[in-house]
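Tutorial sheet, problem 5. The two components below are modelled jointly, 1485 residues in total.
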Amino acid sequence: MFLLFIQMQAQQNITGKVLDEKNAPLPGVYVTVKGTLRGTITGMEGEYSISASPADTLVFSMVSMKTQDIPVGSKTVIDVKLEVEASVLNEVVVVGYGSQRVKDLTAPVVSIKSEDLTKQLTANPVQALQGKVSGIQVINSGIPGSTSLVKIRGVGSIGDYANPLYVVDGVFVDNIDFLSADDIQDLTVLKDASAAAIYGVRAANGVILITTRRGAAGKAVITYDGYFGYQLPVNILPLATKDQYVQLVNEANVNTPGYIPVPPSRYPSSTDWYKELVRPASTTSHGLDMSGGSDKSSYSVGGSYFLQEGIMNIRNSYQRFNLRGRFDQTVNKVLKVGLNLVFSQYSKIIPNDGDFFQAFVNPPVYPVYDNSNADAYPVKFAAPQKYGFGNSYGNPVAGAYYWDDLEKGFELVLSSYAELSLVPSKLVYKLSYNADLAYYNSRNYTPQYYVGGSQGVTESQLSKTSGNSSKKIIDNLLTYNDKSGKSSWTVLLGQETRIEKSAFLTGSAIEVPGIDEQSKYISLGSSAERNANDGASTFNGLSFFTRGTYNYADKYLLTLTFRADASSKYQQKWGYFPSVGLGWIMTDEPFLKGVNNLDYLKLRASWGLLGNDNVPANSAVVLGQTGTASSAVFDSRLVTGVGAQTVVQNYLKWEVVNEFDVGVDFGFFKSQLTGTLDLYRRLTSRVVFFAPIATGGGVAQLLGNNGNVVNQGVELKLTWDKKISEHLSYNIGANITTSMNRVTKLQGRDYIPDALIRGNYATRTQVGHPIGSFYGYKIDHVYQSDSEAFLDPVVQDIKAAGYFRYKDQNGDKVINDKDKVFLGSPIPWLIGGLDFTLAYKKFDFSLSLQGQYGNKILNAKRMNRDIFADGNYDKDFYTHRWTTTNKSNKYPSAEAYNFGFIQQANDFFVESGAFIRLQNVQVGYTLSKLSFVSKLRIYVAAQRPYTFFNYQGFTTEIGGTPTASGIDNSVYPLQSIYTLGVKMSF
Amino acid sequence: MISEMKRTKLLIYTAAVISMLTGCQKFLDIRPEATVPSAGVDYSKPENIFLSVSASYAKMRDFGAHAFPYIGAFEITSDNADKGSTPEDNPPMAELDHFTYGASNDLINNLWTAYFDIVSGANYAIGQMPLFEAALPAASDKLTTRQCQAEAKTIRAYAYFNLTRLFGRVPLIDTLLTAEQLASLHQATTDDLYKFIEQDLLEAIPLLPASYSPDFAGRITRYTAMGLKAKVHLYRQEYDSVASLCDRIILSGQFSLYPKFRDFFSINGKNGMESLFEIQSSTLGRTSGDQTYIEYAYEQGPRGNSPAGLQGWGFCTPSQNLIDFFNSRGEVIRPLTTLLYRGTVTPEGDSIKKSCTNPVYNGKVYTPLIYNKWYFNGYGFDQNVRILRYADILLMYAEAKARGAAFPTKSGLTGDNAVNLVRARAGLPDLTNTTVDQVLDERRAEFALEEDRFFDLIRTGSAVTVLGPLGFTANKNELFPVPSAQLQLNLNLTQNPGY
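Model answer (structure tokens):
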């Protein structure tokens, strides 16, 4: 019936050439027929060909060029000269369920192009955002294939659920680990409520929109992008050597009754366990893409392969193979359809990263292997117990060696749409069906082995899990735009249905042969102890939303959005999320005309509400405590039991973010200097997280709406773009974000303690302080002599030379809980990045720096001496510890270090987490028109070659939950990557 | 034509929206996967009665309640035992040994949370029983619910008894509370706590059976509750009640002493004729899997011994003071079981090698290698924690008599008779006109390393004299500090004196 709308007109072929001001051909210019979806793109010589009728108008547009409209009339050849437009304001960015001109935005939306993502040699495109976008904190881990933690504008929500929403071609996903940077056309970050509120209940932690590559009209272009890299473990913490260790242990036990000092000769060898656990490793990446199309259809297909070997000295790696295809077809004047598929397959060999803690504590005095260890099998690893150490110790290399953990999976993201131009160039209806199907398969095998003490297994164990998930989204979108006089407006009406399902099946067995992969099957194990388990979850969501924008005279801008969301997870089903954004382009006002060097000035303000439904479903239901831990034993048999907590379960309400943003966008000196400044304030109310509760209810913590948290700060981005001559240009970009996190209200309590370490809470969440601030004793000084300690009128649990003298905060001459104070927060209050690029003739050079300041880390791996009293020390402690000859006022003596009273949160264990990092350095050389290769770029690059920090650990990038983060119990180290790469197009 | 079409389209859309809105409620009201239709317990099924009680028994297996922290606070603190292991091993335990602990000691916090978890588990079970009683018509089922409730009350009383001995004043929780209520509870006085404990036991005794079928060996009986109540009265110095309750237990004829002292501590002595209350620990005959056992024995096993199934952490080693005490009394039988020397071979044929870290270990938890099948570190995983045994009933009876309990007892046993039953088994001559001190010495010799001595010293007021040289401070160490973590979770808690 739509055929009825089509008024057939005489179509003719129009050809032509697009040139720049210097008459050089301009490839990549979009040529479209105004008011239709038909378009093409100019080729390498600026040529194009498009069919249009004499009544049509052709639109020639290109980024950073002034758009030209030319009526066709009787012409069949139209040559155009485009002028440079000194701004990117006409650029179009993707926003939720549509796109908008940058000029019309009332929200700080950051768009990142594929080139900037591929430049960073990271496994995951999200890691490339680190230091690039203001307001985003990315916390990376060195483990191959691990998911990065991303925080947009501070910490509000609960731990595992605090990641932003990722929308890949319309599909909501939890992370984009399955994508390669090569798959991405552009990535857009929606930071404020005005932009994000269209995603309503999923938008509380910000939204990242990803558009995968699409083709453009013109002849086919094939691009190859690949590199080989060499990775080195960096910032490996130096540990005490054998002699230093023995000296410290003897010192620590000078006053221990019955202790006989150990001579270093008692131990056979000296081992640096960290060095035994790391190695250099390789990485490689290859991407191939082909795209092209005609004026009515376009396609892009590509594939990529990525491999990263882990830097842990054991089998660990991440491999990913991606295939992608996108097809867009304009069927006729009314109908356009498209289909996009991304298929990603991965496999991970997961290392035992907990082993780095064992490496930290294991005494450096025994060898890795010991042929005289008769009990050990199959490999003759040395047992710490043979050297007099307790069962808490295990040989770290053996721990890594016997770990056998694999995961494989694939993910398919499918998006399809049909777009109907109901009223040409005004009313468009779009129906889309998007789906994300994922399947994974993991297996964990422990062979039969023994090292010593309790490090060993008498029966091999195998467990396997298979899981799948599907997310389906059906969108109905109606977009209308129109103008009248100086006013123009758009209206979006949308409805969305979401269905998410996941299921898993797991099984385990013992006595599985496990000689090779072929024998690691549950069916080969003992039939007596086979277990199976399964589970599933379902979630349904229904939403209605609308967005209206209004532009008056290209000066006054208004954006309104509203979304109503219903979720099957809550008893309170519906939530409503409005937003409003205002913009004022001041440079077009008479009073700013002629102001020197000011090209552009826009003021923006926005407000909105965002929601978060990313909490466990049915959390208001008390679940029975089942299983062995709830079953009594009588006469050597288990009698099934079911227990339950005796504290009333909280009824969860929607967590809501109330965000306010004021910003200014500006351009100076012919837009050589551009920038954006934003002030934001996010109030997250009824924050949902697990908080410890007073003992007696049968559970240690409860999920609840615990209070309100404010994140506020300033984001500034400045870019200086300078073309000195035809051959030389450079660009400097800087961004800086300040963030202040404050708890403004707590539900029914004065504070929430968390991070229970050795019987003491190390953090406290309290009104007026950042969430999860470290809390403990401040060290006044170290007692320099026993007599000083004895004469000191202040009473504390233990006092002697070399012990901390904690600060008596309340002056009552007794050191106890009342003297504990706030010791800083794990949230950085300054994050920044700096980029520099330089192009000279065929050379290009770029360098980027990033860093953070103001955050603290609790060095918890040092706080373990209740269990590992004869464990190893780090070298920093050895060098600086208090002794009678090295009277430190910061470090305790080796003896004091072992005492529980010293081993609790205090400002010795709370260290600065500030760092500055050389993120990426790159030099490239580009050749063009080399026989069949149209363009070839060769580059060498170093990713993360140098990071500077004072913290005594591998890295200061430590995650956690909101009320217990920045706590370092040992992590997998980070790596530097040195690569040689090539990018070419045919 | 066009308007016709528009109308059709409008109709289609309207129909679509209407059908969506009506389907909407159904679409959003979905039950979670992998659940049964009516959440919660089916109270109409008698077989479900025991579920919550079983769970509260299970909570007594917690590490904090009856393993490492328990050994530390109840025994290593006493003059019977030293910390053990290597000198530098486990500083928090060394703090308990030397009375240098403060409110931040992790083990003390473990005790607090573990016993309150038991209280919570018992509270849940106690609250479940009336729901069953209302739903079940059969009189026998109703009776079962009352008996099960009595078991849970006994468990709660036991947990509170230990909490009260440890901390003096703790919050009294006997029902479901909100998190806010939990965080604002005040501590009950020691008197009120004891009244509460006595009330629970008083209510439990008449409802509990005298015994169970063998497949429920170890379940709480009437005599468990009576024995615990006797002990509570002993701590309250209410000797008439002690004598009366012990008398009833003796009179029951259900209990007797093993002729051989050593047999009570063997695997076969679990829940035997001498036993009134034990914390059940078992590997269920398996060699790996979920934890259904307590590492109570393992933590006290010979350190550095081999093979792996015959070694432990080596904590809680008998002190020289205890050995001297045995020697001064000319004891032979009891030290042979209580003390496990390195460089010896046990009567069961296991060798405790010379290379062990400590000269002597707790022999009462000794478990022969043949029983330790758990992979590599299963020493004594099948060994129960003995809480209350018949010898204790006899000695409580004797102490009450020696302290002048006037209550007419029916068993006909004199105080001397009771003590001498215990002494005879230990190969010691009879006493006459037994004094209180003689009974207390007998208790020390009989229950050494059974987590009884420290609180006996506190109860009798002799802690300062005996433990002073070991670091005990009067008016402070009688009670443990309220853990610092707990003070932070509940602002209404107040610290014990001296901390």
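Marking note: Residues 1-8 of chain A have pLDDT under 50 and may be disordered. Full credit if you identified this.
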